[in-house]
Amino acid sequence: AIFCLETAPLSKVREDLPAFAKLLASSAYIIITDPLPEICMVRFRKETRLVMLCKNAFPLYDQGFQTDFFLKWKVKYRMLAGQNDISVMQIPAPAREEFFSRNYLSGRTARCDLTGCCSTDVYFDKANEKAAKEKLLKLYPETADKKVLLYMPSPRPRKECKSWCSMLNMESLARLISGEYYALVYLGAGGMEGYDNIVEIEGFSKIVTKEMNIRELLMAADVIVGDYRDTFFEAALLHKPMFSTAFDYEKRIRIRNMSMNANDFDRFLFCPLVSSSEELAAGLSNLSSFDYGPMEEFFAYALSGCDGNSAGRAAKYLINERTSKP
Question: Any residues with CB less than 8 A from the CB of 286 and at least 6 apart, and which?
Fold first, then answer.
């Protein structure tokens, strides 16, 4: 049996714990996409393989969680400190084995030659890209005959970054690029809470909430602007012009428990930094000479195993290598 575990269904475990335990005990493979605190309390049969297929190819935070998550969920933090007893872990590139092992294995050994990230396979199917563009046009017909700018900076509390409010000045950006671009603004759960900026400008910009998921938006966009989302970094696979609004990364790293230090983050900045609407507009006016070199270097180091066949390799392992030892 193959048993796939996600965080949400685990909330129902207490309703029928014996049945859950039986299912775990009878499974040859247990697949997870995140470290799960419940699994830290479990030890499996020798024959059982706990397989981690990470849901993000480039997690920015230790174990995928920010500091404020740990402060809010102290019990889960203590449980996660025990780590999951992972046998096989898929990694996005051979060069990232040390990072993923340090984050998820806690000194244990596991098989890490299974490369890729299944969630990134969608980027390599032209049918998915076509469907995303068609869905976008249907939802936002005003994007017709314009380049789509996906604007996805992470919201900052005012006390952390006073400049963020001016960075998200869509009225200023509209005056500079509205003739050629239409901006879709993706802010996630935090939104514009605490800010008075006018983000939706008629004929130029719209806040996207649940109409399209983030990967659909990335595939449909012509230009991508963002900073501290895992999906922003994996978007390098799309080989599109990108700009980073991580101008405050040194402070952000100290506050948010990022899994890389400031020097590493600087090394992973594969696209130009912008800190104002004017700088972004200047970059957009010069896309014909956009330098993809740093993006290609980042891909070679961090995402080289992501080629559209990640799920196929995971399936091959599950089907043909059941008796393999980690």
Answer: none
